[in-house]
Amino acid sequence: MKTAFVFGPTSFIGSYFIDHLLASGYEVTVAVRKNSKHKSRLSRNLGRLTVIEYDGLDGMPVLPEKNYAFVFNFITDYGKRSDSTLSRMVQANVYFPMKVLEAVRCDCYVNIDTTLPNINFYAYTKSVCSTMLREYRSETAKVLNLKLERVYGDGDDDTKFLTHLVARLKSGETVDMTLGEQNIDFLHVRDCAKAILHLAEKTGLGGPGFEEFTIGSGRPVVLKELVEFIKAQLGSRSKINYGAVPYRKNEKMFSKAPFTDLKGWKPEISIFDVDFKKFS
């Protein structure tokens, strides 16, 4: 049976990815922090997983003496948690991914990255990690670095823009935001999960080396147009104050995943086909 080890399985993307791994016939082991606030995201699959708990980023779970086909790292600190600090972000986004790569025996190590430019410490630390992975010379494992466009879907944290927007529109609250001129490549989380495994299987088992891919829908949308679409779909009476929030320094105004060679994968879900009334 195909084997996979997942770090960060209670993350938003990680939990959807677990669903897809199991549906694809994998034997899955997950490492979960004892104090994780999102363990409920694994409840639907607990009987089908091997779960290893560990204390947190300062430690490392006791690992089985076996070789895995794939190790996937979804651990990320976006800097939006109440306990987020720069040192914690470095630990989560740089130090721990490298520690996992050195500790777990596998044929392919897959790191989840972002397409954001260095507009904040989250993006900067992820960039540092990808640079280190590129220079790392594993004698046995293939290293894949997957840069994701803006992933969305039902069940994401309220700190994410679309989840926060939908909640406020449903409640009729005023929404303060930028002018909304950004062209953003939104990628549904189910498409994202399929793309990650597809690329791992197609490119990850060819021996040591490094490869990097960008994953997105390839169909950027103007943010203001999307906001108005969601508002109309929900029948919301919220007032939207465009321009109340300034653009960030180095704001990325246009983002589109280049479909140069994703080994046959294509997205299936358009954001304009999503029923935002079911978002929670």
List keywords for this structure.
alpha/beta, two-stranded parallel ribbon
Provide a brief overview of the structure.
This protein is an alpha/beta fold.
- The averaged pLDDT comes out at 91
Helix tally equals: 6
Number of strands: 13
Helix content: 25-40%
Low-pLDDT regions: none
Share of β-strand residues: 15-25%
Briefly note the structural class of the backbone.
alpha/beta
Outline: globular
Distance between the amino and carboxyl termini: 35 Å
Trace the largest sheet across and list its strands.
Answer: 3-2-1-4-5-6-11
**Rg from Cα:** 19 Å
Largest sheet: 7 strands, parallel
H-E string: EHEEEHEHEEHEEEHEEHE
Question: Could you explain how this protein is built, in words?
Answer:
With 280 residues, the chain is α/β, with parallel strands linked by helices. Helices cover 30% and strands 22% of the residues. The chain is built from six helices and 13 strands. The protein has helices at 12-23, 86-103, 121-135, 161-171, 189-203, 223-234, and strands at residues 3-7, 27-33, 49-54, 68-73, 106-114, 142-148, 150-152, 175-177, 183-184, 186-188, 209-215, 221-222, 240-242. Strands 3-2-1-4-5-6-11 form a seven-stranded parallel sheet, with helices on both faces. Helix 1 (12-23) crosses helix 5, helix 2 (86-103) packs parallel to helix 3 and helix 4 packs parallel to helix 6 (223-234). It is globular, with a radius of gyration of 19 Å. The mean pLDDT is 91.
